Amino acid sequence: MSNINYKKISENLLKGLPERTQSIIERRFGLKGGERETLEAIGQSYEITRERVRQIADEGLLQCKKKIESQKEVFLALDSALRNFGDIKKEDALLEFIGGNKHQNPVYFLLTLANGFNRAQDDDNFHSFWTKNKEAVSFAKKTVELTLNKFKTEKKLFSLDELFEAQKQELDKKFGKKITKNIFASYIELSKNIEKNYEGKLGIRNWIEVNPKGIKNKAFLVLKKENKPLHFTQVATYIDNMFNSSEKKAHSATVHNELIKDDRFVLVGRGLYALREWGYIPGVVKDVIFTILKNEGKPMAKEEIMEKILKQRMIKENTVFLNLQDKERFLRDEQGKYTIKEA
């Protein structure tokens, strides 16, 4: 974000502290390039309690805070970064924005020292975030609530642009000021219940369109997107290409087994599957013929049956004719038309 060396500034603030205090703070905040360590882990290495570690760290941080007046440029930069997002930002996104790949831990350290910057711990509904005022928190949470209601009402995914355009007038009216797309994005990013799917569209976290669990749900999304019947081997290939995950590859045999067991899918040809919601009748060819005759409620000529069943199954005409010869299920009248044999 800037040319400020956050790591160097953090090191300067720690200078003059007792060696153990400095080491504890470095480990607590990951200032030497490692992971942030817990109070428990640090205490074990020094053979002191976690509470004593906390006390030592707090005493050291208090000394660091006395030096921060000399770092006004840094804290103006931090303040500017947060204002860019409406005075509130998801923690990991803010740290990456300010510190890039290398200086996220030093930025976290400096935010902890800065006056007026407050960190909120994550909970069931929101990720941890940094803010500068309570009003921003209220605006953000109301925006998330309105957005979740929008998803529940519309029951569909939105791109960020679509979602912002659909809600900006209501948000401006509710807050009495204009909300920019950048601020809107920062607000909804806080929610654990709103996520992006594989195409970058936003929706509710537990929708299968957002977080498909297992092969069958991914297969469902593949067919929805392609909007046509596919062979199970094609479905497996599309799953690997669409989701591009680090998971093991979707094997075609596994896909075939999952599709057979799930009644959302209908086998419409040799290895070809369609979605039941498209109007495909489940069952073997005889079952489909039976359903067609039952729905029509009158005798039908072979050609009429053929026309309807070929919309349901990708099979040869002779297969339909052979199935019509089942005298246990179908009757042919003097005019050559077929009906269901009554039990």
Care to describe what's here?
This protein is mostly helical and 343 residues long. The protein folds into 4 domains: 1-71 and 91-116, Winged helix-like DNA-binding domain superfamily/Winged helix DNA-binding domain (Arc Repressor Mutant, subunit A); 134-204; 214-278, Arc Repressor Mutant, subunit A (Orthogonal Bundle), CATH 1.10.10; 285-340, Arc Repressor Mutant, subunit A (Orthogonal Bundle), CATH 1.10.10. It is 54% helix and 9% strand. It has 16 helices and 10 strands. Strands 1-3-2 form a 3-stranded antiparallel beta sheet. Strands 6-8-7 form a 3-stranded antiparallel beta sheet. Strands 4-5 form a two-stranded antiparallel sheet. A hairpin with a 5-residue loop joins strand 9 and strand 10 (338-340). Helix 3 (39-46) crosses helix 4, helix 6 (91-99) packs across helix 7 (104-113) and helix 8 (134-154) packs across helix 10. It is elongated.
